Task: inverse folding
């Protein structure tokens, strides 16, 4: 079973860029049946999908965040990254990376392995 | 965009059955997945593809999907089942993943 671990600063100033990396261990990241996703959860609130990336670099973003988000992948390092620009206090959340599994016959996608999550606070 | 609606809270006594619903337009045409999240922990997949259980998930957890409502059923509820539960689908028209708002299960 692959394991995922988020890393990055826990504090970001307003208007700056939030940058996180997810390191994947226990197997290659370049598997055709998987994408790799970022999900966040503001304190006391629900889950919000941010976006997902395929090993080829193809990306899929939540339309509510698309103008500020970039997700990239580095297969040589077995990791993928999130950049969220122009952050505000509303971006304060626990950020999770997860393995995004494609179902047979493209019925859908689900997240079967998650990192432990990392709290990012936006504050001056 | 596709919207999933869950009740904010459900309460159940131990050893009884908990039912958590997830409503969406013609949701039966989609594959529904369910996650359990305990305080301070990452979410964990408990049901995928409407009815399937990942390895290690007890048979007490089951799912169904019909019409505009998908349901997660937890039989013989235990204190350790107390958690937040989220449903999730893939919206094929936009290629986006969508989560429901979550349901807090309280074991009385």
Result:
């Amino acid at each position: 079973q692959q394991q995922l671990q988020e890393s990055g600063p826990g504090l970001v100033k307003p208007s700056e860029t939030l940058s996180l990396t997810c390191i994947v261990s226990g197997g290659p990241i370049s598997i055709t049946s998987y994408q790799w996703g970022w999900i966040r959860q503001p304190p006391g609130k629900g889950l919000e999908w941010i976006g997902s990336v395929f090993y080829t670099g193809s990306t899929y973003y939540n339309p509510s965040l698309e103008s500020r988000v970039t997700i990239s992948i580095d297969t040589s390092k077995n990791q993928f990254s999130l950049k969220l620009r122009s952050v505000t206090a509303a971006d304060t959340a626990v950020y999770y990376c997860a393995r995004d599994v494609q179902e047979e016959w493209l019925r859908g996608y689900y997240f079967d392995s998650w990192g432990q999550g990392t709290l990012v606070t936006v504050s001056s | 965009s596709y919207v999933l609606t869950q009740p904010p809270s459900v309460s159940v006594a131990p050893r009884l059955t908990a039912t958590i619903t997830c409503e969406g337009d013609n949701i039966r045409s989609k594959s529904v997945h369910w996650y359990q999240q305990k305080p301070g922990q990452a979410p964990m997949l408990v049901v995928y593809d409407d009815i399937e259980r990942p390895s290690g998930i007890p048979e007490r957890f089951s799912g169904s999907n019909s019409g505009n409502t998908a349901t997660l059923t937890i039989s013989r509820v235990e204190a350790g089942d107390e958690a937040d539960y989220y449903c999730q689908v893939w919206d094929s028209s936009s290629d986006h993943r969508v989560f429901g708002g979550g349901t807090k299960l309280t074991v009385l």
